[in-house]
Amino acid sequence: MNAPLADPAVTRRHPPLDSDAFDALLAQLTSEFAASAAHYDRTAQFPHANLARLHEFDLLSLTVPVALGGAGASLPHALKVVRAVARGEPSTALVLVMQYLFHHRLQGNPHWPVELRERVAREAVRDGALINSLRVEPELGTPARGGLPSTIARRGADGWIIDGSKLYSTGSPGLAWLAVWARSDETPPRVGVWLVPRDAPGVRVGSEWNHLGMRATGSHELVFDSVFVPAAHAVDVHPPGEPGAGLDALGLAWMSVLLPAVYDGVARAARDWFARWAVERKPGNLGAPLASLPAFEQTLGRIDALLFNNRVVLDAAARARHMTLDEAPLVKYTVTNQSIEAVQLAVEASGNPGLSRDNPLERHYRDVLCARIHTPQNDSVLQGAGRAGFAAFMRG
Q1: I want to staple 213 with a disulfide (CB 3.0 to 4.6 A). Which of 19, 78, 92, 370 is the partner?
Q2: Measured between alpha carbons, how far is 89 from 39 in angstroms, rounded to an integer?
Q3: Is 340 within 8 Å of 369 (Cβ atoms)?
Q4: How far apart are CA 169 and CA 219, in angstroms?
Q5: What confidence category does residue 143 fall into, taking pLDDT thresholds of 50, 70 and 90?
Q6: pLDDT band at residue 117, thresholds of 50, 70 and 90?
Q7: Which tens digit of pLDDT belongs to each residue from 145-200?
Q8: What is the CATH number of the domain that holds 272?
Q9: 197 & 223 share domain
Q10: CA triple 112-253-169, angle to 5 deg
Q11: CA geometry: angle at 5 spanning 198 and 14, to 5°?
Q12: What range defines the domain where residue 289 resides?
């Protein structure tokens, strides 16, 4: 496979990834995004402005290879950015995670036509074009639990005609490209990814995203009514059971770090609100801040212990030379569950103020609970870990 040629016209607009200036930029973006987070939660509007700011500093193309104009960022660098964005506005961070995951592995996928994958990468650099995989369907549910897609790609004169629908299409109002998981109308069928432009005729929104938390992700249902794509857009299509579209071990490791980092960021924002509130709240009968009470000190200590564990796990996983397919899901399980516990502790200790819609803690609580719905879910993680553990003893 030939390496792509570097584009001399592209210059990155962010400071070096390992620099005080880069850290200051991320802190500035955290503050900016936090200021509008309540608005996006209340209205469920898609955070176009946040994503435009990320593109302004070339952060939407962070994991695009350097040769194509990106930063070619490592997992620790991507983690740093996701943490900062999630602490400000987590829906923006989730869209960013999907972008990073896709571009991290795209250029190494030999099934894609070179011209097409380089086009997608260059548009991310030049325009901030977003891409995401669309896999979940109304009848099938999550494909991680097995089954073939109902979305059909039929042969046309010069390409493919796609019909079907996809749920939970994260980022759909802002996506430029849709990597649609479907099956062909051949006998036997092939299964995999067809690349669909978001503005292709026949692509429309079905049921709109209206969830308890992560309300600004724009995870609408997308419906495909006789959508035409050129023949070359069958980018990663194979007979069922053959290796093809999906995450390999390295892709799974990246997902298992970046996805829970979103919810760790939510928990850290919740922690900051709780600490500030306990310092400022001075009941008349106490004559001192709640933060002076041992019970509140212990609560914040428990929260900080959970978040310390998260940081250690995420940093270690991001720098690990190798993580097995059994170990990677445990990172997601550990970090997301500790994030939920941390926010629950803050809610329990703050009482009514914590649940008031006038304060952000109740929003953080709704957002962090969404960690449970992402693949792999807790039952699958634990069953897989248990099966692997027993298998080791059986082999012995």
Answers
A1: 370
A2: 10
A3: yes
A4: 4
A5: low
A6: very high
A7: 557 899 999 998 899 999 999 999 999 999 999 999 999 999 999 999 999 999 99
A8: 1.20.140.10
A9: yes
A10: 60
A11: 70
A12: 249-395
